[in-house]
Automatic annotation (TrEMBL):
Gene Ontology cellular component terms for the protein in this record: membrane
Domain HAMP: 281-334
PANTHER family noted in UniProt: CYCLIC DI-GMP PHOSPHODIESTERASE TM_0186, CYCLIC DI-GMP PHOSPHODIESTERASE TM_0186-RELATED
Keywords of this entry: Membrane, Transmembrane, Transmembrane helix
Transmembrane segments: 7-30, 254-278
GO biological process: signal transduction
Lineage summary: Bacteria, Bacillati, Bacillota, Clostridia, Eubacteriales
SMART domains recorded: GGDEF (SM00267), HDc (SM00471)
Protein's UniProt name: Diguanylate cyclase
Domain PAC per the UniProt entry, residue ranges: 415-468
InterPro entries assigned: CHASE4, Cyclic_di-GMP/3'3'-cGAMP_PDE, GGDEF_dom, HAMP_dom, HD/PDEase_dom, HD_GYP_dom, Nucleotide_cyclase, PAS
Every HD-GYP domain range: 618-807
Length: 807
């Protein structure tokens, strides 16, 4: 569609919309104004009608009171005087009073006498039915002397009525009946109302529900027909009043609006024609010249053409902008040619590849330099697509497919991937591919991918060398701490579920470094690392954590494998004989479980267990805490070193028989040495008293379990056996001390020490008693089973004694 036609259509549509809008607005404003005036006219007409009827009702009320409060009327109801009728109730009187009917009712509201004037029988019957309704008349107060006035309708005629009680002129006598007087609203009264209200009024009998108060106004082109309902003297909406008014103001306003609209349309048509001429002369003609010039540029593809338009309007500015654009395009073409030449030279110089993939058609373009470098043989783009992916290393192919899928499904345009390929000699070539999605369809699906292929084989070899050096320990050749931390981060990131960590600390390294020099210390570390590599599986990761510490990561293996490996490592380290001191290593392990969900927590548990192992290792130079406490205990009390060592060995054997784990056996050995450590806080006169202790002294003696608990809690190396030290004098039946724990409430290790310690005390001499024979001790254990001792532990301990051939 041409601009000329579009402009014409827009002008005509704008013209029509403007005309319609203006006329609608004008009509609505005028119509609203006229409706307001006409509504007021209707209301005024009804007000005039109401006012005139009120005057007529007051007039008939006055007449009814004059006759009802007259002594002769009162006496007439008393004796029905015929003279009263002949003199007063005649046609001449009815004509003078302008009344159509008069009714006399007695005190029971029964008809006493009546007189009608110019009324048909049917009309008179209808009036009497409405006025002489006893149910209504009975509601009027019989002692009241006030009159009641109103209107009724019959046969579409309106009657003005008044009902007054009959009494004497002094109004002191009790009413003896009622007087009903009424007159018809004749033509004279109707014409008078029509003249005053400037309308045509009719009265109709309402045939609907009397309680309905609906009003209705209907307007047509020339007249207003309004209706309203009046209450009759009985209080019902039984009289419909219709008013017919000519719409003078509406008709005049409509004619003026027609004249104004016609003139307005003519004026707008003239303006439209003028605008059309101006638009064609100054806009469309110049636009046609500009369009023709752009068509020449498109056909000839000559950016040296130029256009000239006179004037200083928007079209001349567009023409100048077009000329400027053509100059820029000419320069850009030169730059594009230069860039293409440079790009070709750069690709040849760098020997990099240019990769242009049509994803939808599986067509691939690769520059000649890269094809020669890797030995492509495909003839067309589709064959090249399949050959390229056939050259990718099988180990990289699946991962590359996933990466491509992620690239194609993401909203990111740029990507960077690396993978291995084979050249025509079968050699591995590392390739870095960097590129961009340059085209997508309407749904965002990629259509075209462009990238650069770079040979990074040499760089990869260099990176592998650097990586090996950065993740390896120079002295031992093991992985270093940085490598292990990276592995642990990977485990946490992938939520790897089943793995163990073993942490080891070589005992005596500082002593060798200080006494023999660091060269010998390095030799010790190297020998230990050699044993670790020899004993661990190929898929176990052994690392030097730092100094004399090692960490072993074991994935996908059982706890039995780990404990067996620890035993082998300890035996191997004990067999190293090239140093003046015995070589040993403290080991602790932990596994990932529900309590230790990340590597940091697992490492922390393994480290604690390693230090716990160090405390009970004789060869450790870090068991000073244990040695110091034991030395103080032995100096202060009759507890001998032989006793503690027997407890340690016997409890270890019993724990082994029970199948305790390695870390629990370490705890048990340490507990055997230090279970009575709290006795260093008991006064010597109580500890060394040869006779029986008093009750007070015994209470003091029993506090040694709590003292030992506090010592262990305040010593980090011993805190893990504090609860067992506290409970080692609890009895299985709950009668022990200090807490009266019962059964399995007592920690297992404390129950073991209770059995072993009691047996050793009974079978060895003390300052305050002689030793008992083993048979006696066995019988005591059996007797106190389930009382003082755990019966299962007693049974297992007796089996141990049999195996040791002690019984």
């Amino acid at each position: 569609m041409s601009v000329r036609l579009k402009t014409l259509i827009i002008s005509i549509m704008s013209f029509l919309l403007f005309v319609v809008f203006t006329n609608v607005v004008s009509y609505l404003v005028i119509d609203k104004y006229i409706n307001k005036i006409e509504s007021k006219t209707v209301d005024d007409s009804f007000d005039v009608l109401t006012s005139i009827l009120n005057k007529e009702e007051n007039s008939i009320k006055s007449t009814s009171l004059d006759w009802a409060h007259w002594d002769e009327t009162y006496n007439f109801l008393e004796n029905k005087n015929e003279e009263y009728i002949r003199q007063n109730i005649v046609d001449n009187t009815m004509q003078q009073l302008k009344v159509s009917f008069i009714y006399y009712l007695d005190q029971n509201n029964d008809m006493f006498y009546k007189k009608t004037y110019l009324l048909e029988d049917e009309e008179r019957s209808e009036i009497e039915k409405k006025l002489l309704n006893k149910s209504y008349l009975g509601k009027i107060n019989p002692s009241s002397i006030e009159a009641k006035e109103g209107v009724i309708s019959s046969n579409n005629k309106l009657y003005i009525v008044s009902i007054a009680p009959i009494t004497t002129s002094d109004e002191r006598s009790k009413p003896n009946g009622k007087l009903i007087i009424g007159r018809v609203a004749d033509k004279e009264l109707i014409n008078y109302i029509n003249t005053i209200s400037k309308s045509n009024i009719k009265f109709l009998d309402k045939l609907k529900d009397y309680n309905n108060k609906e009003e209705l106004t209907i307007k047509n082109n020339g007249y207003i027909l309004a209706s309203k309902f009046l209450k009759d003297i009985n209080g019902n909406n039984s009289i419909e009043v219709t008013i017919d008014i000519e719409r003078y103001l509406y008709n005049i306003g409509l004619s003026y609006l027609m004249i104004f609209g016609s003139l307005y349309i003519v004026a707008l048509l003239i303006v439209l024609l003028i605008d059309r001429f101006v638009l064609n002369r100054f806009v469309l003609k110049r636009l046609k010249v500009l369009n023709s010039f752009i068509g020449d540029i498109t056909n000839k593809k000559d950016t040296n053409l130029r256009i000239m338009l006179d004037g200083n309007d928007e079209f001349s500015h567009i023409a100048q902008s077009t000329n400027n654009m053509l100059e820029e395009l000419a320069l850009a073409n030169i730059d594009i040619k230069d860039m293409h030449e440079r790009f070709t030279l750069v690709m040849e110089a760098t020997k990099d590849g240019y990769f242009d993939l049509n994803i939808e058609e599986s067509r691939l373009y690769i520059n000649e330099e890269w094809k020669q470098a890797l030995g492509y043989e495909a003839g067309d783009d589709r064959e090249l697509f399949h050959e390229h992916f056939s050259k990718i290393h099988p180990e990289c192919l699946e991962n590359l497919r996933k990466r491509y899928k992620d690239i194609l499904n993401s909203s990111t345009d740029f990507f960077d991937i690396s993978y291995r390929m084979f050249n025509d000699m079968g050699e591995i070539v590392w390739v870095s591919q960097r590129g961009k999605i340059v085209s997508r369809d309407g749904e965002g699906k990629p259509l075209r991918l462009i990238s650069v292929l770079i040979n990074i084989t040499e760089r990869k070899k260099y990176e592998e060398d650097i990586l090996f050096l950065s993740y390896s320990d120079k002295l031992t050749g093991l992985k270093n701490r940085a490598f292990m931390e990276r592995e642990l981060e990977e485990l946490d990131r992938n939520h790897y579920e089943k793995y163990f960590l073993i942490m080891g600390d070589v005992n005596g390294l500082k002593l060798i470094n200080d006494a023999l020099g660091h060269k010998e210390g390095d030799k010790l570390i190297y020998n230990v690392s050699k044993e670790l590599k020899r004993l661990c599986s190929n898929d176990d990761i052994v690392s030097r954590w730092g100094g004399d510490e090692f960490v072993i990561l074991i994935k996908g293996k059982s706890k039995d494998y780990v404990e067996e490996l620890i035993t082998k490592i300890k035996v191997a380290c004990d067999s190293i004989k090239d140093f003046p001191i015995n070589v040993s290593i403290a080991l602790g392990y932990a596994n990932r479980d529900e309590e230790n969900v990340d590597s940091e927590a697992v490492m922390s548990v393994a480290e604690k267990r390693m230090y716990r192992n160090k405390l009970i290792e004789k060869k450790s130079t870090r068991n000073a805490v244990t040695s110091s406490l034991l030395r103080t205990l032995h100096e202060k009390h009759s507890e001998t070193e032989e006793h503690t060592m027997r407890i340690k060995e016997l409890s270890f054997k019993l724990g082994t028989s029970l199948g305790l784990s390695k870390d629990k056996l370490d705890e048990l050995e340490l507990l055997g040495l230090l279970h009575d450590i709290g006795k260093i806080g008991i006064p010597e006169h109580i500890l060394l008293k040869p006779g029986k202790l008093t009750n007070d002294e015994w209470e003091i003696m029993k506090t040694h379990t709590e003292i030992g608990y506090r010592i262990a809690k305040s010593t980090p190396e011993l805190s893990h056996i504090a609860d067992e030290i506290l409970a080692h004098h609890e009895r299985y039946d709950g009668t022990g001390y200090p807490n009266g724990w019962k059964g399995e409430e007592i920690p297992l290790l404390a129950r073991i020490i209770n059995v072993v310690d009691s047996f050793d005390v009974m079978t060895h001499k003390r300052e305050y008693k002689e030793a008992k024979d083993i048979e006696y001790a066995v019988e005591e254990l059996k007797r106190c089973s389930s009382k003082q001792f755990d019966p299962i532990l007693v049974e297992e301990f007796l089996k141990l004694l049999e195996r040791e051939e002690l019984i």
